[in-house]
Amino acid sequence: MIDTQQRATETLEQLRKLARAVRRRDLQVVHGAKLGHVGGEMSAIDILVTLYFAVLNVDPNRPDDPERDRFILSKGHSAVALYTTLAHRGFIPLEQLDTFAQPLSKLNGHPDRNKVPGVETNTGPLGHGLPVAVGAGIAAKLQDASWRVFVLTGDGELQEGSNWEAAMAAAHYKLDNLTVIVDRNRLQQGDWTEQTMHLEPLADKWRAFGWSVAEVDGHNIAQLLETFARVPFEAGKPNCIIAHTHKGQGVSLMRDKAAWHHKVPNTEELATALKELEEVGA
Amino acid sequence: MTQLYDCRDAFNEKLRELASEDLRIVAVVNDSVGSSKLNQFGKMYPVRLVNVGIAEQNMIGVGAGLANGGMIPFVCGASPFLTGRALEQIKADLAYSNQNVKLCGMSSGMAYGELGPTHHSIEDMAWLRAIANMTVIVPADPIETAQAIEVAARTAGPMFIRISRIPVPMVHDEGYQFTIGKAARLREGGDITLIANGVLVTQALQAADRLAAEGVQARVLNMSTVRPLDKDAVLAAAAETGRIVTVEEHTIYGGLGGAVAEVVVTHNPVPMRILGVPGVFAPTGSAEWLIEHFGLTAQGIADAALELVGAKAQRQ
Q1: Interchain CB contact of B215 with A (< 8 Å)
Q2: Do A155 and A199 touch, CB atoms closer than 8 A?
Q3: Which residues of A touch B92 (CB under 8 A)?
Q4: Chain A residue closest in CA terms to B98
Q5: Which listed CATH number (1.20.1260.10, 3.60.110.10, 3.40.50.920, 2.60.40.640) goes with B184-315?
Q6: I need a surface site. Which of A84, A258, B27, B266 has the fewest CB within 10 A?
Q7: Chain A contact present for B133, CB below 8 A
Q8: CATH class name, domain B7-163
Q9: Per-residue confidence of chain B (316 residues) as pLDDT tens digits?
Q10: Do domains B7-163 and B184-315 have the same CATH topology?
C-alpha cells in the first residue's frame, strides 16, 4: 500500500518535471522559429504530458499499431506542444524539434500525420478533431476493439458548429470509448471567449447533448490522472472533461493574456520564462 | 427501345457484394439512405450503415475517423451537400490527411432538375479536382460504376465518385476494364475528338453518329477519371484529330473541359469547344430539359463539332 502510494507520488513528480521540460523546450522552439502559439500550448501541456506518459496506450516504436489508443489534437495550432511531447515520449528525435517551421521540415505549423509518427489526423482548421474522433470511436465499436479515443479541443474552437454535430453523433452511438478534453483557458485569439461568443454554461451544453461531464483543474496533474482513470464515467455515454486552464500557464508574463495566443517571446522574455520554469522545479 | 439504367443500382449491388466479402466496408450517410438506395444494404448490414443525420461536416470527419480505425468507408450523400457543405473537411481530413475514404456523390450534376440550383451539383468536379491527392471519377454507365466502386475499395486513398440518377443506356460491354486515370476510346475517328464523361457519354456517341452522316469522323473518349487526367489520351487526340470538343454535366469553369484545356494549351494548342453549363444558375426545368436547354445533347454536341471543323477548314 505504502509502496503504491510512493510510486504514485513519484509518477506525479515525474510528470510535473516533464511538463516543465516540455514547456521550456516549447518556448525555445517557438523563439527559434519566430513562429508558434505559445499561449494555448502552455495551457495544454499538463494535459498532453499526462495523456502521453500516464494514460494513452501508445508505443513510439509501433505508431501504427491497430490496437493503439488514438489521440487527436483538434487545436492543431498547439502543434509545438504536441511535437515536443511526442519527442519526449520517443516518437521523434528531440533534435528534430529545432527544424520546426524551417523549409522542408516535417514539423509544419500544424501537424501532418503523413510526416510525424503519432499524429492521427491533420488539423489546423478548427472543429475538425471531434468528428474524426467520433468516426474512430465508431470503428473501435464495430470491431469490438478495446482501444480508446481522446481528443483535445480548444474552448473558442467550440464555436464551430461541426463540434456539435459530432457531439450529437457521439451520444447517439453511445461512444463511451471517446473522451473529449476541453482546454478551457477562456481566451481565444482576440479576446475572452465570453466576450467574443458565449460558451457558458458549457458543462450543461455537453450534458444536454448526452455526454457525461467532469470538470477539473487542467494544471493539476493529480486531478487529471484521477479523472482519466475514471473513464468511462458512465457506460454508454461519451466523456467530456472540461479542463480549467490558463493561457500561458507557467510563465507569469504570458498568463491569461490574449496577446500571447501567437506572440513570439523575444530573447529577454524567453530568458525570464525559462528562469521561472526552472525555479518552480528547484 | 434501348434499356435505361439508374447507376445507383449498380453502385448498391456492388457495395453489398464487397461488404459480404470484406468486413471493413461501411456506408456512411447523412439521412440519405433512400436517396443513396442503401435500404437493402442497411437490412443486410445494419451496424455497417452509419447514419450521422443531416450533418455533412461531421459525416466527412466520421469517414476519416473510420478509416483511421481500419475501416473502408463509402460516404454517400447528395453530391451538392456532400461536397459543398464539407469542402474543408474533404481537403483537410481526407485529402491532406490521406485517409482511405470513398465519397459517393449521389444525383450529381443537374439530376435534381426542378429542385433548382441549390440541389444541382455542377461545381463538384472543379472543387474536388483542385484538391491535391484527390481522385475524381465520373462513371458513364452501370458497368463502369460497379467497376469504379470495386477499384475504389481495393485502391488506397481518398476518392470522389460521381453517381447520377439520370437514366443512361449501357455504354460499355461486359469486357470493359475500368482503370483509374485511363480514358476509354469508344469510337475511332480522325477529324475531331469528343471527350465526355458521366451521363453525357451516350450523347457524345450519338453525336458521333450524326457527324458520320455529315462525313465527319469523330473519336469519342470517355474521360471517366478527371483527376488524375489521362494526358496521353488528350495529347493523342490533339495530335491525331486536331480538334476537341468536351462535354460535361457541370459548369464549364474548372471541370472536365478545364482539365483537358490545361493539358492542350500547355503542350499542343488545338481549337477546342467546352460544352457544359455556361456559368449560370440553371432555370427551372427537368434534368432532361436542362440538358437540352444547355445544348448538351447529341445535336448540340454535333453542332459544336461541325462549327469547329468548319472553322478549321476555313483557316486552312
Answers
A1: no
A2: yes
A3: 122-125, 128
A4: A114
A5: 3.40.50.920
A6: B266
A7: no
A8: alpha beta
A9: 789 999 999 999 999 999 999 999 999 999 999 989 999 999 999 999 999 999 999 999 999 999 999 999 999 999 999 999 999 999 999 999 999 999 999 999 999 999 999 999 999 999 999 999 999 999 999 999 999 999 999 999 999 999 999 999 999 999 999 999 999 999 999 999 999 999 999 999 999 999 999 999 999 999 999 999 999 999 999 999 999 999 999 999 999 999 999 999 999 999 999 999 999 999 999 999 999 999 999 999 999 999 999 865 554 4
A10: yes
CA nearest to A264, candidates A24, A38, A22, A21: A38
Rounded CA-CA distance A19/A45 in Å is 6
Determine contact: B87 vs chain A, CB below 8 A: no
* CB burial readout B262-288, b (16+ within 10 A) else e: ebbeeeeebbbbbbbbeeeebeebebe
pLDDT (mean) for A164-182: 98
Tell me the catalytic residues of B: 56
Q: Which of A122, A132, A175 to mutate to test the interface with B (most CBs of B within 10 A)?
A: A132
Question: Using a CB-CB distance cutoff of 8 angstroms, which residues of chain B are in contact with residue A128?
Answer: 61, 88-89, 92-93
pLDDT in tens, A140-155: 999 999 999 999 999 9
N residues, chain A: 282
Q: Can you tell me the ipTM of this complex?
A: 0.95
- In CATH, which of 3.30.1360.30, 3.40.50.970, 3.40.50.10490, 1.10.3260.10 is domain A2-281? 3.40.50.970
Exposure class string for A156-180: b at 16+ Cβ within 10 A, else e: bbbbbebbbbbbbbbbebebbbbbb
Grid coordinates belonging to A138: 465508431
- Give the H or E element holding residue B104: strand B102-106
Question: Which residues in chain A (95-114) have CB-CB distances under 8 A to chain B?
Answer: 112-114
Q: Does B229 touch chain A (CB under 8 A)?
A: no
CB A128 within 8 A of CB A77: no
Bond prior to A238 in cis (omega within 30° of 0): no
Polymer length of chain B:
316
CA-wise closest residue to A111 among A136, A159, A75: A75
- The rounded radius of gyration (Å) of the Cα atoms in chain A is 18
With 0-12 / 13-18 / 19 or more C-beta atoms within 10 angstroms meaning exposed / middle / buried, residue B208 is buried
